[in-house]
Amino acid sequence: MSERELLQQPVSELLEQRPYLRDFFVALQLGMPGPGQCPAAFFAGLQAAQLAELGLDHAALAAQFVDFARHMEQFQHGGDQPVRKVTLLGGRDKQGRPEDVQLEFAPGEVVCVVGPTGSGKSRLLADIECMAQGDTPSGRRILLDDRPPDEAARLSGEQRLVAQLSQNMNFVMDLSVREFLTLHAESRLVDDSQAVVEQIFATAVELAGEPFTAETPVTALSGGQSRALMIADTACLSASPIVLIDEIENAGVDRRRALELLVKKEKIVLMATHDPLLALSGDRRLVIAGGGIRQVLVTSERERANRRALEALDRRLLAVREALRRGETIDFDF
Amino acid sequence: MKLVTLAGPPSSGKTSVVLRVAEGLADAGLRVGVIKFDCLSSDDQQRYEKAGIPVKTGLAGGLCPDHFFVANIEQGVQWGRRSGFDLLMVESAGLCNRCSPHIREVLAVCVIDNLSGVHTPRKIGPMLKTADVVVITKGDIVSQAEREVFAFRVRQVNPRAAVLPVNGLTGQGALLLHKHLQGAAETDSLEQVRLRFSMPAALCSYCLGETRIGRDCQIGNVKTMDFS
């Protein structure tokens, strides 16, 4: 849409096609134009003194409006070409020794990251997050679909590669679950936000294992419920192709279902974990030591079989937990 | 010398961000200095000194902090030049949210934090609206959804700015900010250069120390509300 069209079309028509434009007027707190009025006429009717308080004049206001519309347009269509492949080219470890790896991550893949505290797991994540181009201490480089990311886009912070989930994250908004999800859906400019909200809510309840209502304030959710809602929301609404999961082992959610959900939603899942069940659920494990990727282990058949045995053990543990919760005694031979 | 103004509400993490980014700049061989503008007191002097960064602190005391800022900034720039800095970072708290210390042709950074709530971007005003780079801190303790909503709200208010999450504790995300700072314009003097936004006006009896309340006591530039 041209600048002229944006400024000359009646606001009611504009809002029908681009509901997000309402936010521009709301944010400026200058009132809403009448339905038949076009933005240009509305702007012309505003007092210069009123605009001066906002540091604007009539021309700057019109320019800002066009800027806003363009930006939102771009934002809405930004997800049209999702990243199909993320490549990591090795750099060097803390001693400066070369890190001889080239890793490719594809949507729907689960990659675990293991290594002791201080080994360089966070560095690896940070490199992916800022799309390192040999300009971080590790010297690593990140390619998106075989190409280095556009430097201007990288500096603008517009493309966020990594969505993050960790035990330390909390909800801080004073909103109900439904209001919260609606707000997120609106900020992602999705077309049918109501349907998306219902879908995420249902998924979160399923993952949590303990029911909650959409009217519950997000800050009143239990640890498990919050984690479940965060995972469901990230899977369905976040634009970032990579999801980094840090320590969800004790979160009280169905971890396997959570992973399945992220995989189904075509996320690249990177998981820092030493939980045997989770670590062996991955397709590969990156072993980090001394600031570098030391080894890339592909989960073997034997390991997968062991994971199934561990799962059986886990189910038995879970049954004991449930029994305790119901007030039963555990005085049998385990 | 490169110059940058860095502003944000109190406790948004400005000093931590400056410290993290200064580490990276020092590694790149740049000499970095800081001027800290504050109101009543500031412990940040020690934090900078401990990090080995030359710093000058200016306390506005009984004056409007932004008027105090603008009256001292040019002398600050000359101090920075004499000290031989490659980059001078000028940090100030935009206390009334109506203030903006940003200057034309000088890189302007606004620091706000995820914990301040999703309505904050709309309330902050010129300090955020006129910034070139918006740094969002404290992302490590809120949910992904809240980070995304917050960043979206920032972009609504200032579509042109770069929006960068930075963790003030670990420095994660500081690299991109560091690149913006390295690209800042060279400034030798601010003589005759303009602010991006006018400062809040005030010239009334209270500016001059009046403390009594009442119609008879308010003289000068006074604006009254309509309670009818």
UniProtKB/TrEMBL annotation, chain A:
Residues 83-316 form the ABC transporter domain. One of its GO terms (molecular function) is ATP binding. InterPro entries: AAA+_ATPase (IPR003593), ABC_transporter-like_ATP-bd (IPR003439), ABC_transporter-like_CS (IPR017871), P-loop_NTPase (IPR027417). SMART domains: AAA. Gene3D superfamilies: P-loop containing nucleotide triphosphate hydrolases (3.40.50.300). PROSITE patterns: ABC_TRANSPORTER_1, ABC_TRANSPORTER_2. SUPFAM superfamilies: P-loop containing nucleoside triphosphate hydrolases. Pfam families: ABC_tran (PF00005). Belongs to the ABC transporter superfamily. This is ABC transporter ATP-binding protein. It comes from Desulfuromonas versatilis. The lineage of its organism: Bacteria, Pseudomonadati, Thermodesulfobacteriota, Desulfuromonadia, Desulfuromonadales.
UniProtKB/TrEMBL annotation, chain B:
It comes from the Bacteria. Pfam families: cobW. Residues 4-164 form the CobW/HypB/UreG nucleotide-binding domain. This is CobW/HypB/UreG nucleotide-binding domain-containing protein. It comes from Desulfuromonas versatilis.
